[in-house]
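Notebook entry, cofactor series.
This is the third protein in the set we're modelling with a bound small molecule. For this one the ligand is 2-acetamido-2-deoxy-beta-D-glucopyranose. I'm keeping the input format identical across the series so the outputs can be compared line by line later. Sequence and SMILES below, as received.
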Amino acid sequence: MGHTVKRGTLPAKRPYLWLSWLLVLAGLFHFCSGIIPKSVTKRVKEAVVLSCDYNTSTEELTSLRIYWQKDSKMVLTVLLGKVKVWPEYENRTITDITDNPRIVILALRLSDSGTYTCIIQKPEKRTYKVEHLTSVRLMIRADFPVPTINDLGNPSPNIRRVICSTSGGFPRPHLYWLENGEELNATNTTLSQDPETELYTISSELDFNMTSNHSFLCLVKYGDLTVSQTFDWKKSKPTPSANQHLPWTIIIPVSACGISVIIAVILTLTCLTCSK
Ligand SMILES: *[C@@H]1O[C@H](CO)[C@@H](O)[C@H](O)[C@H]1NC(C)=O
Ligand SMILES: *[C@@H]1O[C@H](CO)[C@@H](O)[C@H](O)[C@H]1NC(C)=O
Ligand SMILES: *[C@@H]1O[C@H](CO)[C@@H](O)[C@H](O)[C@H]1NC(C)=O
Ligand SMILES: *[C@@H]1O[C@H](CO)[C@@H](O)[C@H](O)[C@H]1NC(C)=O
Ligand SMILES: *[C@@H]1O[C@H](CO)[C@@H](O)[C@H](O)[C@H]1NC(C)=O
Ligand SMILES: *[C@@H]1O[C@H](CO)[C@@H](O)[C@H](O)[C@H]1NC(C)=O
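Returned structure with ligand:
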């Protein structure tokens, strides 16, 4: 007993005492019923609608007590139609207390995964009795997008450097560079985790000899999932530096032509006025 009281930074007041009581009761009920809660999978930043599955009239709702808890922590309460949201869910929860009470949690985080329970209490002889209880298991996924491979140019003659990167996934990823199924030595592999969202970013560089054809695979493994991107290098491929010269080869003759025409026109006009 008293889990929430100890956990919370707020002083222990009477409502918190019976709230913790309720958590215990709910826990017991859940344990005894042995019902596997239905399960919902969402992605990070998405929204989820969690319903109490309790149909009632809007009039009756004002006399009910509705509690939403996640595992053993409070999410929100609706007492006499008044909504109280716990700080972790503040500013990203919508409460709908019409005929079927439900909540919407926006901007889902990895830490939101868990079992959510809605408990509805009804007034009965100067006290409240648990009228309804429902649980939903929420799983949050964070998939890495397909990695991107970018050219970093030539660190030395005949050596090309490319970088493979992806971000916004979970759990901790591992990156491999492969050619013909063999692992290559990567340089500068970096892994970082956003302290707020817990999502990872990974990148890795690869240097290769430009004088032969290559087909590289950048493979990112996380949990039991993988994402990958291939990078093909053809020896005969023109280098980007040659492409950069292309605009000038057009601009110079074009502007030269333009200038010649203008000069010719001016000269002709001057001659015409001279001859008069
Ligand atoms: C609640 O009402 C909806 C339609 O209004 C119905 O589809 C649903 O089955 C009802 N649920 C329960 C638990 O009575
Ligand atoms: C919620 O929004 C209000 C007003 O914008 C702000 O004062 C409060 O700090 C926010 N709470 C959280 C937990 O972000
Ligand atoms: C990778 O590095 C190891 C040790 O640093 C070296 O023995 C091996 O030859 C390297 N492999 C390639 C393909 O460069
Ligand atoms: C690693 O990356 C840093 C900056 O991103 C760069 O200065 C350094 O030269 C790189 N080292 C290698 C071996 O690629
Ligand atoms: C690249 O490969 C060619 C042919 O295999 C070799 O002659 C050359 O030394 C290599 N260059 C570097 C920088 O390793
Ligand atoms: C490299 O690729 C090009 C284009 O596909 C091909 O014409 C050439 O024969 C290849 N060279 C080698 C050594 O495989």
